[in-house]
Amino acid sequence: MAVSSYTKNGEKFWQVYVDVRGREYKGRVQKRALGIKTEREALAIEKRLFREATEELTAKVMKGARWIDVIDRWVRHHELYPTKRMAKTTILDYEAVLHNYTKGWLDKPASELNRADGREVLDRARDSGRSFRFCRGLKSTINLVYNFGIEERLIPGVKHSPVFGLELEPDREEKTPEILTIDEIRTLLRKAKEQQCEWYPMWAGAIMTGCRSGELHELRRADLELISREQARLEDEKPFDKRNYGVLKVRRGYNTRFRQVGPTKAGYWRTVPISSEFYRFLVEELKVETLKPEEHLFPRHWAWDKGLQARYLRIFCESNGIPSIRFHALRACFATQLIGSGIPPFIVMKICGWRDLKTMQRYIRMAGIEEKGATERLNFLPTPEATMEKVVQLLEFKTPKKE
To answer: Please, are residues 226 and 187 in contact by the beta-carbon 8 Å criterion?
Structure first.
């Protein structure tokens, strides 16, 4: 609060400024009065304005925190108490989504938001071209943060979020997943090698290991357990299911957003069996036998460090007549080819580092192993044997029997 004098046109006046802030929330009420002729009158007005500002702020506090305050409190809570389920990148993504798609809510008391507001946000997201999957995630994020506000008593007098119970209409047409066939995979790697593309080692490594981009980025010589070349020649003579060229230990991942190295996405290390093809690639093309234990397996690239690997793969595919895919789709190619070749899904889950069957089911569906052979018993088209049988029956019918 402040009472001060000023001069205007040679005459002395008084002005009053009142600023009342809330302690719990970022609420603030400001009031000002000008042109007061006496100090005594200014002091009386100051008391009145302070009372009015306090009443307004109290009314705001009774309504609870603003939506932006609830978001900030939720972010701060998870920064102070991190969990494996809520990674730092996930927190930042959720915060950005809420700021972008609930922009009209930010300065409103969260307790005043209703189902109409929730429906408006979801409809706007759908109208902007967002998929059913994205809108479902947006709804879940709003529910998550709003319920946190209720539990923390930031939102009084409310039991459910504005989007609770709202139904979403699924997409009429499901998008075809980005993936390459075995012939397209071979074409991609062949053309990349012929054109001496600097990304060829990384693409080949991703397809032959199923590693995520960040995991592939941080593989080092110490993560390899390789057999000698003499042992490899002996392994070549064994049956396919008995060969063992060594293992690759996937223990770290690179986060392009924060430019830092951390654990894998699943949070635990895993091993990838080295195939004969990958063994030759490591020994003959990457020359891993000459690397020191701390050296990276794959070449360094500035665009890879910045997370631009998907852009370069798309450009190469489009310029060479190959279906455009992102870098992460190479991992899907690895998984579907393994499943399609008869490797049990639970083994593929271990190799690729998936924790649940929900993700795995998508690749099983793409590989088509559950439907394999289902139509084999159907016989619709005429076969040569069936055709000849009909001809014989027709001839017997037309030829008169001899008595």
So the answer is: no
Q: Answer for the pair 276, 226: CB distance below 8 angstroms, yes or no.
A: no
Amino acid at 43: L
Q: What angle do CA 150, 155, 158 make, to 5 degrees?
A: 75
Tell me which residue of 296, 299, 322 sits closest to 309, measured CA to CA.
299
Q: Is the pLDDT of residue 119 over 70?
A: yes
Cα gap 146→134, rounded to integer Å: 18
Average pLDDT over residues 55-68: 78
Cα gap 138→124, rounded to integer Å: 12
pLDDT at 88: 85
The DSSP bridge pattern shows strands 28-36 and 11-21 to be: antiparallel
287: alpha, beta or left, given left = phi > 0 and alpha = psi -120 to 50?
left
pLDDT-based confidence at 389, cuts 50/70/90?
A: low
pLDDT (tens digit per residue) in 200-225? 999 999 999 999 999 999 999 999 99
Average pLDDT over residues 21-40: 80
Least confident of 25-29, 102-106, 195-199, 273-277: 25-29
Mean per-residue pLDDT of the chain: 87
Residues 365, 374: Cα–Cα separation, whole Å: 14
Three-state SS sequence of the chain: CEEEEEEECCEEEEEEEEEEECCCCCCEEEEEEEEECCHHHHHHHHHHHHHHHHHHHHHHHHHCCEHHHHHHHHHHHHHHCCCCCCCHHHHHHHHHHHHHHCHHHCCCEHHHCCHHHHHHHHHHHHHCCCCHHHHHHHHHHHHHHHHHHHHCCCCCCCCCCCCCCCCCCCCCCCCCCCCCCHHHHHHHHHHHHHCCCCCHHHHHHHHHHCCCHHHHHCCEHHHEEECCHHHHHHHHCCCHHHCCCEEEEECCEEECCCCEEECCCCCCCEEEECCHHHHHHHHHHCCHHHCCCCCECCCCCHHHHCCCHHHHHHHHHHHCCCCCCCCCHHHHHHHHHHHHCCCCHHHHHHHHCCCCHHHHHHHHHHHCCCCCCCCCCCCCCCCHHHHHHHHHHHHHHHCCCCC
Number of Cα atoms under 13 Å in the Cβ half of residue 175: 7
